[in-house]
Each structure stands twice: as C-alpha cells, then as structure tokens.
Amino acid sequence: MLDLDDGAKSAERILAFRDEEGDVSRDYVDAVAQAVEAGDAEKVRDLVRPFHEADQGALIEALPADARARLIGLLGDVFDFAALTEVDDSIREELLDELPTKTVIEGMKDLESDDAVYILEDLDKDEQNEILEGLPASERVALQKSLDYPEDSAGRLMQTELVAVPPFWTAGQTLDHLHATEDLPQSFFEVFVVDPGHRLLGQIFLDKLVRSPRIERVDALMSTDRRRVHATEDQEQVARLFERYNLVSAPVVDEAERLVGVVTIDDVVDVIQEEADEDVKALGGVRWDEELSDTVMTIARSRFVWLFVNLITAFVASAVLGLFEGQLQKMVALAVLAPIVASQGGNAATQTMTVAVRALAVRELGAGNAFRVTLRESLVGLLNGIGFGLLTGAVASLWFQDWNIGAVICIAMLVNLVAGALGGILIPLTLEKVGADPAVSSGVFVTTVTDVVGFFSFLGIATLWFGLG
Amino acid sequence: MLDLDDGAKSAERILAFRDEEGDVSRDYVDAVAQAVEAGDAEKVRDLVRPFHEADQGALIEALPADARARLIGLLGDVFDFAALTEVDDSIREELLDELPTKTVIEGMKDLESDDAVYILEDLDKDEQNEILEGLPASERVALQKSLDYPEDSAGRLMQTELVAVPPFWTAGQTLDHLHATEDLPQSFFEVFVVDPGHRLLGQIFLDKLVRSPRIERVDALMSTDRRRVHATEDQEQVARLFERYNLVSAPVVDEAERLVGVVTIDDVVDVIQEEADEDVKALGGVRWDEELSDTVMTIARSRFVWLFVNLITAFVASAVLGLFEGQLQKMVALAVLAPIVASQGGNAATQTMTVAVRALAVRELGAGNAFRVTLRESLVGLLNGIGFGLLTGAVASLWFQDWNIGAVICIAMLVNLVAGALGGILIPLTLEKVGADPAVSSGVFVTTVTDVVGFFSFLGIATLWFGLG
C-alpha cells in the first residue's frame, strides 16, 4: 500500500519496510536487529534513515526490548525523537530510563513543543527537570508553561511554535515576513493576528493570504469567527470542537485571551482514537490504559478488580436462586431454564446500554432527548420481549412437554427484556448525571438488574403458577 | 465554551446557540421553530445566518421533523447545504425526499465535491441522476466519477477540487498563479506537481512555498516522499495511513498514478469516528448503522437478529444443564452455583476478547505477536482462575457448609477462566483469519464457550467428586 521514499528505493531495494498487511516486515526487523547486534552503526543508519518518524517508532516496537536503546545509540542524529511519540507508553518509559540523559536532551532539542511535552509529561518530576535544565532557556520556558497546565488539557496538547503578526500589517508585508524569517515553525497552516498585548484578534489561512491583494491589511482579511480553545480546557472538549466544525487547527488562549499556542488536528486524531479505545475497553471491563506490551502480572491485577465486582453481583444473582431452592428441587426444569431468561435479558440490556454509552460519549444523547430515547428503548424491549417470550415459551413447552412451563417463561422473558431496556438506558443516564463514567460502570449494574429480575420473575411466577410456595 | 460570531453577537444577543453542555439551546430552537411556524422568513434568516454549517445541521436535528424542510425553504440561500453532511443519515434522506429537486440542485452547486458525493451516495439511482442532470457539466462529470468508485473507497471520500502545476514552474510563478486565479478550491493546504499526463510527481505545502526563493523550480522544492492513496482503496486503510503519518491531506491517484483528487483530514476524522462507533456497537450486539433517530420497529427488528442467535446459544448452554438434571435434583446447591461459574468465565473472556478485537482493529495485533499475546492471555486467565477459584470456593464452602462443594467450584472456575482466556483471544484471531469481522461475531462464540465449559466442568466435576453419576 505504501510507497517508499526515494531514498529507501535506492538504498535498500530489497527490504520492504511493511508487508502487505501493513505490519513492519519481519525481514526488515531481522536485518536491523542483526546490524544492531553486530554494532554496525553505518549499516543501521542506512537501513533506518529513509523512514518516517512513525515508521521508526513501529520499528522500535517490533525490535526485541534489549535492542531498542542500542538502536537509538547507533543511529545518532539519524534517529528522529518524534518517533518516541508513536510507541506504546510503557516502551517509551523504558527507553527514556535506559538512554543517557544527554542523548535524550539532544533529541528533545529538535522536537516541536507538543511532541516534547508528550514525551516529558509521563516522566517523574526529577527526570523532567534534569532534561529541562539541559535545554535552551526559551524552549525550557515554553515547555514548562505547557507542563504547568493540567493533564489532558489543551495546554498540554498545543504546540507553542506559531506565526503571529500585528493587525496593521498588510498581506504583502506578512508574506515578505514569512519569506525572510528563518525561525518559523516546521509547518503551519495559518497566521494569527494579535494586538500589542498578544490577545488573539483573528487568523488567516495561508491559502487566503496568498490570494489576497498585497496592500490589504490583515485585520481586514482575517476571520474572527473561528473557534478558539482555552488552555485549561479538557482535550475531549477540544476533540468535540474539531469534529463539530471540521477544524484543522485551533488557537489556544489563556484566561486573558492571550494567544499561547495552537492545537493541530494530528494531535486531536490521537485524542479521538484514545477516547474511542477507552470506551471500547471500559465496556469490555478492561482498564483504559491497558496496553498490549503490559506484563502478565500488571494485566491480571488490573482485570481482577472488575472481575471481583462481577463476582459479587454473580453471588447476588445466585442468592436469588437460593431463595427458590425448594422450588428448584421440586421442578428441576426451572433450574435448567432460569439461565436463559437471565442471559437473554442481559444481552438485550447490553444492546441498549451500548447505544446509550456511545451516544453519551459523542454527546448525541442529552437532556433534550433522554425521555424520547428511554421511551423508544422501552418499546423496543416490549416488542422483542413479546417476540422472544413467545419463541422461548414454545421451545420450552416442547422440550419439557408442558405448556405451563412455556407460559411461565414467556411472561418472565417479557418482564426481563423490558427491565433490561429500562436498566440499559436509565443506568448510564444516571451515572452520567452523578458524574461517573457510564462506560466504566454501567455493565455491572445492568447485568445485576437482568440477572436478579430474570431469576426472580421466572421463579416467582413459577411459584405462583404451579403453587410451589 | 464557544464564542459566537460577531454577527451573532450583534444580531441576537439574547439567544445563545449552545447551552453550557454544548447542546443546541432549547430557547434558540424554540425561537426558530416559532418563526418557521409563522412563516417569518426574515426572522428565520436573522436567527440562522450567523451560524456555521455544523450548527445549522445541529439545529435541523433539534427541530421537529415537520419544521425541517420548511426551515430550509424559508432560509433560501442563507442555508448552507454542507449542513446536510452533519445530520443523521435518516434525517438527511427524509429531507432530500421532501425538498423540491430544484432547491436541492441549487444547494448542491455551492458544495465541494466531497460533500456533494456524501449527500448523493445514499440516494437511489433515479434521484441521483435527476440531481446530476441539473448541475453544470463539469461538476456532473466530477461527481459521477467519484460515485463510480466503490462505496467506502478513497474515491468517494476525496474532493476533486485541487491546485496542480507543472514541474517547470517556479515558486514565484505558482504564487502569482494562486494570486490571480479566481476558480480555486474553497480551501487548500498544498499545491500538487503533475506531469503532462497528470501523473502525480510531488507536492508542496503552502508554508514551504511562501518561504522558498521565488526563482526556484517547484520540482526542486516539492516533496516526493509523501504518501498517496489509490482511489479504490478502502476508507479504513486511508484512515490508518493518516493516523500513522499524522497527515492533514493526501493525494488520491487512479490506477495509472494520475492525480484525481485529495482526501482531507476532516473526512478522515469522520471515518475514524465511524469505525470506532462500529466496533463499540458490534461488541455490544448492535448493528453498526443503528442511529438514535431510527424508528422503534427498525431498531427492534435489527436487534432481534443478534438476540435470536444468542437465544440459540443460551438453549445450548441449558441443554448442558439438562444433561445433569439428575445431579441437579440430588444437589440443588449445584443449580444455585452453576451460573456463577458461567458468568465469571464469560466476563473474563469478554475482557480478553475486547482487547483482542480492538487491537485487531487498530492493527496492533497480527501474525507477529499473536502467539505471544495468546500465551500472555492464558497466563492471565490462569492467575485469575486460581485467585477466583480460591475465593469462590471459600464463599461456596461457607454458604453451603460443605468444603467439597467449594473444592469443586474452585477447580471448575479455574478451568473456565483459562478456557475463557483462550476463547477470548483465539476466536477473534480465527474470525479475522477467515475474513469475518471479529467485532461482530466474537461475542456469541465466546460466551457459548464459557457457558458450555462453565456448566459442563462444574457439573461434570461435581458428578465425579460426589459420585452422583
């Protein structure tokens, strides 16, 4: 799928970086690993030089753990430290521990501030300070300012390199400035217009700038309607803003509306991806920060917690079964069929909950439509409850040759599917209301509801119907 | 969070468009609905004019269904048809049915080609043709070409408006061209360099162009290393490419490497969001295209299918219980405890499955690490199996005052958690291998495994232990 760089094409025709599935090719990794093993710096550099920082990051992940730091050592200035923003957190932390501080400082000097902050923020205070002290004063101050903003805020996400001009400049003057100035950001899409107090007045995209009459003043050309984010705003809100207005970048301002940085879409894409990941994992009972590179013990411990909570709810459901021990003994068919009622309710409730949690996450579900959606889910539960009640009833009647048992399971199924629908929507809504993350905790409550209601309704109705009390 | 446009600030100070939670404010929607009701075109226009297309889309979604088409009619040219790309599919289709074809054609004329294709592609062939025939020939041809590419391909996602120059032009010449030409794309980030056969040679971002010496030729300035996509490539692959290399845009080429369009990051963000949504929904047993605006019947029907499959597996699990009817009758404690073994195994397996499905989706899991991850998951299952086996065994022993029953559930729990771990990883891997979507179908198989293994191991071991056979 990918074209290699020209450099790659000429230097290493034989070794394709990625295989057809887009994974880093085994042959390539082996070749690099061998060269690292042999300490052949020139070979290593030739192999790695042609590749993009993201590919360098993928290579690091694919290498054996003990070859990673040595690779970076051998690569010297061929290694792009931005590659470290592309690897798993745990691998990055290991690497930063292993690498000499001097190497890290040298590598950090070439980074844009957002990448530098991304790497620094996971280190502990001492390591951070050691690295910061090795950097030139201007960079240090900018990074320190970003790091002072709360975790997961726009201030952490932004880069501080940007182009800002005064409102009285003309388009021509601005273009000449861009043309003549050495010290510009590595890449940028717009020029910001600020007042003498560095307060943001507006911005002009480059495509508009090059199309404008040279004599026009920038404050006449700039758009003032564009969205800005505050440095303390949470990154999820920033992501919402980018999604909603299809932004490519957005200025970041401080509490006095002074321009302090710019957030670009590539960082926001990471946030969106991260968020979606967290939702998927949370719904599956996995911690949001679990990574494929974690150790067995770390994973076992983090999953234990969720399973422990589930075990308690499983015992609660069993206790309900225990209430009906006598009835189960008299009619063992009840013991055989009860799990069907509970499981079908659980699955229906999970469907509703999934829709609710995701709609809450992307803000499609709110006070405005909560009632309507709840009503709709209840009706869906009722309809499917009737359908599955009749179906299960028929099968159970045939199985146990007793239409009474079919009638009982039919009613219980209907009750549990409606209960599941209500639980599936009301529990996430309530959790959101009280400030808990619905993706994380809805599942436990919802299946508790359907297990308890399923067992209780089925066995309760059976007790009455058959006079088993 | 949002600043309103200047226009909005002066025209309608009193009505904020969004409330503090970012939802469209009720007061604003009511004011618009009233003005629509009264047929007051001027009022409607004043209320809506200041807002971005995305806000106009949100307004349409928030309005009662019967007011939507009338709003668009009253707005006339104040309505930005791009707003239709921001609303739910079902609402868009309804609206396009209701609106006079002439209105739709007029609205489509102002759209970038990617937005136009997005709106057109869901219509049936007749409607598509009717609209296409009303458009100017050049637009019609471009749209038709996009529509001829397969659904969900890069060709559908791209916009055909772009700037391309020959390789022998200089930077100065190119800038002068941009300055003097009227008919440029609404917004663009780069200039493409093409040969006389319109084959892509390279591209230059605007920030690089304005910084370059005016006399330099573009083929000396252009970067050739950037990634391109083929028009027939699937949008998910396009999204992977953008994510991997932090792209803002990418050229689209046809089979002859001719430049046919450009995909921009805003469209890719939608794809990423959509994909994540599909994974979340699929794991929760909900169809990927279910939307909050769907009708009760549509939803009930689409969810029925998944629940039906689950019902079959629930009956299979119950049949396993049925095999042990005699044992259940002799020891009712077994009937009470069996669901705990099954449920705990199901939850542990779901954890593993969630990690596996997501890692497959974002291509972190592949042939290279499948074995290692499987081994790791098995060990996690073993560790947690031992932990929960002992815990459950202790509680069960106390509950039923019989350490034998504790011993039996302890072993069964261990067996089922290891089985769950293996099922949770091997089932998604196998489904991926045979070309099925692991997110959609893993759940059913996985819970079948843990229900069957859970019931069978617990009751089988109990039969042997207590000599109940």
UniProtKB/TrEMBL annotation, chains A, B:
GO terms for molecular function: magnesium ion transmembrane transporter activity; metal ion binding. Its main location: membrane. It is a multi-pass membrane protein. GO terms for cellular component: plasma membrane. It comes from the Bacteria. SUPFAM superfamilies: CBS-domain pair, MgtE membrane domain-like, MgtE N-terminal domain-like. Residues 222-278 form the CBS domain. It is found in: Cell membrane; Membrane. Keywords: CBS domain, Cell membrane, Magnesium, Membrane, Metal-binding, Transmembrane, Transmembrane helix, Transport. InterPro entries: CBS_dom, CBS_dom_sf, Mg_transptr_MgtE_intracell_dom, MgtE_N_sf, MgtE_transporter, SLC41_membr_dom, SLC41_membr_dom_sf. The chain crosses the membrane at residues 304-324, 379-399, 405-431, 443-468. Pfam families: CBS, MgtE, MgtE_N. CDD domains: CBS_pair_Mg_transporter (cd04606). Acts as a magnesium transporter. NCBIfam families: mgtE. Homodimer. Belongs to the SLC41A transporter family. This is Magnesium transporter MgtE.
